[in-house]
Write a structure and sequence with these properties.
heterodimer; A: mainly alpha; 13 helices; 4% strand; B: alpha+beta; 7-stranded mixed beta sheet; 6-stranded mixed beta sheet; 17 helices; 18 strands; 27% helix
Chain lengths: 348, 566
């Protein structure tokens, strides 16, 4: 399922070095330089625009729901009907088959059709986007923060600390991510989570966020640790030690800034992976709990009606693909911009 | 999935025999409705072969512990009790026949004493002889393990004391067994017309007392006395397997010996895959109803091997916990009854649900359609405005409510409809979904504090007390887990159930009808019955559906012992 990324910043190819040297020669800072390179990558920028559009759509969900569709994402319309020409059509047929996409025939209501409970697919899709992004960004933040802390401790302190943390990461790594996520999600979906004074109710979005945030820690911590093992032998770290700086200060003021580009590269990729895992977990019933809309849960609900109402699975599936694709391609663009020579990959 | 019945409070014996005789009498007149005639019919059916049955699986392999119809379908072939239901289809399948006992006894002592005689020469599959004391052991196991069926036996003299003693060797004074003569005498505290049925259901299956020890034996099922033996290959609830093979030592003339030599039970939670496997012949029959798109597809394309009908009597309803806020207030319970639109639920069931206003199902003694329904026409819309007004006037607007359901399709959708409706009438609702294998025991535990949710009940035996006694009495509320998920406790219901149980159901049908009306009238509104489901049976092309479908069997849904290959 997963392989450890290759060490960061290996140099290869004289072409890149020549370009870098030329750019350094004119005195441009590394972040500005990266910005210039990113602007030249039209594909990455295109997918960034797509991602921004998806975020805008997610933010517009309440507007669409209340002003266009005139419904809530969770409201059932099982026995309602829509006017169609001189007659009317049931939102859900007597046989249980829901109405297909209406586009703008009903003034925006049921634009993409209804699900088996007569809920508006478009409205749920937009609210599902909010759920996916909320979980994706929050889980990626948790993953990144935990991974940086673990990597700094293991990589800089070394010794027994490194051994314990590395073995702990190996244990988590040994479990396939989806299986580990399903196991945790199932266990916590009924009783919630209670850790000392912290209590999280079952059904809370915080549960899938925590699960996803934690299971991906080794996938980022390990490459960061490798980078730190290399950095701690550098002269500027020795100089810092010689000046009497403590370990914590060295870790956070000397080493951490040097990890920034790697972290920036990993972050959008982490969001994409978190969104994908949330969809897996929700599809399997171990992620977002009903009735909160989620793309994975929508796909799962639509599977039983894939022949008579394919829109139930296709629409959230397409949204999922677009979101993950846009984040992955933009993430790759960021990596290429920050360090064209880098071979950093987070393969999951 | 169904939950099985328990025996309630007071009982009157005198009429049991009348009831049984009435049932026997009706059997001959109903023979024309039977597609298979049980033991007698097996001679005409092809013998031998192996079939594979897809199922979401038994919830337990211990005959005293299981609750579901899936378990019952398999387990009643492995463990026989004193009596059994006739291996037949249609109405005949509700007739009682003697199994381990050589005859159905006539009660004496004012309906409080039964004397059974165990057939001579019976053996378990491991060769041990069947003895009268094994039946006492079965009842003691039920009482000691304290499962949902333990209260079936509460009216036996000394049963409550035995259960309280918590000692396996404590005496059960109301059951006297003589292994030398095979005589078994059972004394009841009060007469009960349902007691014979209690000794006929699958959960009264008997095993040798040396092996049927006082712990949950689902991991190591003990030998049985039925037409098949059980081997659990894998107990996994998601990808398990069990095998039933013919028991060479089985010899009970009133019970079907089974047509096929071996039945492989393939356990899976994926009903769609199961359906596809029946279509392509990997499975020969499935215990579940096809769902989603596959139902109309199967109905249209495979008419020759797909059966659909009212099946055995059932009622789908929402329970409301009358001991917890907000449903401890009558207005809240009334509001839900007013708001529910059975037409919406009909769609969720894909058209297989018939709206109702009664808790008793059609076909049950005492069933009289409640007309007019106090909550409005069951085939019409719900009265949302009235429900909203009730919630508001009771000061319950915004009250948090959790709707409980389980994972089996379409139950999450049913719960979501209820949640949406509760939101609409003023509550603040959320849902909680529990795995289907533990759902009923979870909501039946008062510690869970389930407020409202999905519930259903399928007939265990043809008696209205099977519904009223198990779902709404105080005695039912006190067992653990309870089938009275709303923990309803009403002295009038208790007294009426006791009074009516003491007489043959047919002779007090109007009393049962009145009680059916009482439990859900606007002064009580204890439950929200919304429909009766049609059930289905789907077979592979290998199966001889026209001659031996085993469907509809009103005790076991499909009687697997009647199934045969072409």
């Amino acid at each position: 399922m997963a392989t450890e990324p290759a060490p960061v910043a290996s140099t290869e190819g004289t072409g890149f070095e020549a370009v870098a040297e030329r750019e350094h020669a004119v005195g441009v800072g590394p972040w500005k330089l990266a910005g210039r390179r990113l602007r030249r990558n039209k594909v990455a920028l295109g997918f960034l625009v797509l991602f921004v559009l998806l975020v805008a759509l997610a933010l517009a969900a309440p507007i669409w729901a209340h002003d266009v569709a005139h419904t809530d994402p969770d409201a059932n319309h099982l026995t309602e009907s829509l006017r169609e020409g001189k007659g009317s059509v049931n939102v859900v047929a007597f046989s249980g088959i829901p109405i297909g996409p209406q586009w703008f025939k009903a003034g925006g209501k049921f634009l993409l059709g209804a699900d088996g409970n007569g809920r508006d697919i478009m409205v749920r899709l937009l609210y599902g986007a909010r759920t996916s992004l909320e979980i994706g960004v929050s889980a990626a933040l948790i993953t990144t923060i935990l991974a940086v802390i673990v990597a700094l401790l293991a990589g800089y302190l070394g010794g027994i600390v490194d051994t314990i943390l590395t073995r702990a990461m190996d244990i988590v790594w040994a479990f396939p991510v989806v299986i580990l996520g399903v196991a945790l999600g199932t266990a916590l979906s009924i009783g919630g989570l209670s850790l000392g004074p912290i209590t999280i109710q079952s059904g809370s979005l915080a549960i899938p966020i925590l699960i996803i945030g934690c299971v991906y820690v080794p996938y980022i911590a390990r490459p960061l640790r490798g980078q730190i093992l290399s950095l701690r032998e550098k002269e500027f770290i020795e100089a810092a030690r010689a000046q009497g700086m403590g370990s914590v200060r060295i870790m956070f003021s000397e080493i951490l800034p040097n990890l920034a580009s790697t972290i920036v590269v990993f972050f959008p990729l982490s969001i994409a992976n978190a969104i994908l895992l949330e969809a897996y977990l929700s599809f399997l019933g171990a992620g977002v709990q009903a009735p909160t809309p989620s793309w994975g849960e929508m796909i799962s609900e639509g599977i039983n009606r894939i022949t008579t109402a394919p829109h139930l699975t296709i629409v959230p599936g397409v949204m999922l693909i677009l979101t993950v694709l846009s984040l992955n391609i933009f993430g790759d663009g960021v990596r290429d911009a920050l360090d064209p020579r880098a071979k950093v990959r987070m393969e999951l | 999935m169904r939950k099985r019945a328990r025996l309630p409070g007071a009982i009157a014996i005198g009429l049991i025999l009348v009831f049984v005789l009435a049932a026997c009498g009706s059997s001959s007149s109903n023979n024309s409705t039977s597609s298979s005639g049980g033991a007698a019919s097996t001679g005409a059916a092809k013998q031998g072969g192996t079939i594979k049955i897809g199922t979401v699986g038994p919830d337990s392999y211990d005959p005293q512990e299981y609750q579901t119809v899936q378990a019952d379908s398999a387990m009643h072939l492995v463990y026989e009790g004193l009596l059994a239901f006739k291996d037949a289809t249609g109405q005949a399948s509700t007739e009682l026949v003697p199994a381990l006992a050589d005859a159905i006894p006539t009660p004496t002592n004012g309906g409080k004493t039964y004397v059974f005689h165990i057939r001579s020469g019976l053996h378990y599959s491991d060769g041990e002889p069947v003895e009268a004391s094994d039946v006492v052991n079965m009842v003691k196991r039920n009482l000691f393990l304290g499962g949902p069926f333990s209260s079936f036996f509460n009216d036996i003299v000394g049963a409550t004391k035995y259960a309280a003693a918590k000692k396996t060797g404590a005496p059960l004074t109301g059951m006297i067994a003589d292994d030398k003569t095979g005589k078994l005498t059972i004394h009841l505290m009060t007469p009960d017309t349902r007691v014979l049925y209690a000794f006929a259901i699958g959960e009264s299956g008997v095993g040798p007392k040396s092996k049927a020890v006082f712990k949950n034996m689902t991991g190591h099922p003990f030998p049985g006395d039925g037409p098949y033996t059980l081997k659990v290959v894998s107990p996994s609830p998601t990808n398990g397997e069990f095998i039933l093979t013919k028991n060479p030592k089985f010899d009970i003339p009133t019970i079907a010996k089974g047509n096929v030599n071996q039945i492989d039970g393939m356990v899976s939670t994926n009903v769609n895959t199961m359906t596809e496997n029946v279509i392509n012949g990997t499975l020969d029959y499935m215990t579940e109803d096809p769902v989603g798109d596959l139902l109309p597809q199967v109905e249209a394309k495979y008419k020759d091997r797909f059966l659909i009908g009212p099946g055995y009597p059932n009622t789908y309803y929402f329970f409301m916990n009358s001991t917890l806020a907000p449903f401890n207030k009558l207005a809240a319970r009334e509001a839900v009854n007013y708001a529910i639109d059975s037409r919406a639920l009909e769609r969720i069931f894909g058209g297989r649900l018939h709206p109702t206003c009664n808790l008793l199902p059609p076909g049950m003694v005492g069933y009289t359609p409640i007309t007019p329904c106090p909550w409005g026409d069951p085939n019409g819309p719900g009265n949302i405005a009235k429900a909203q007004a009730l919630v508001k006037s009771a000061g319950l607007t915004g009250s948090p409510v959790t709707v409980w359901t389980n994972t089996k399709d379409p139950r999450p959708a049913i719960a979501d409809y209820l949640r949406s409706t509760l939101d609409q009438i003023g509550f603040k609702a959320s849902t909680k979904t529990v795995n289907q294998t533990v759902y009923f025991s979870t909501i039946g535990d008062p510690k869970t504090k389930a407020q409202i949710g999905f519930d259903d009940w399928f007939q265990d035996f043809p008696h209205p007390g099977d519904f009223m006694g198990n779902l709404l009495t105080t005695a039912a509320a006190k067992s653990l887990p309870s089938f009275n998920s709303g923990f309803v406790s009403n002295p009038y219901i208790d007294s009426q159930v006791n009074k009516l149980d003491a007489q043959p159901a047919a002779s007090v049908a109007s009393g049962w009808a009145a009680l059916d009306k009482y439990v859900n009238d606007p002064q009580h509104a204890y439950v929200v019955p919304y429909g009766n489901e049609e059930d289905t049976a789907f077979y592979s092309t290998r199966m001889n559906v026209s001659q031996c479908s085993g469907y509809p069997n009103l005790a076991h849904r499909v009687d697997w012992s009647l199934l045969c290959l072409k």
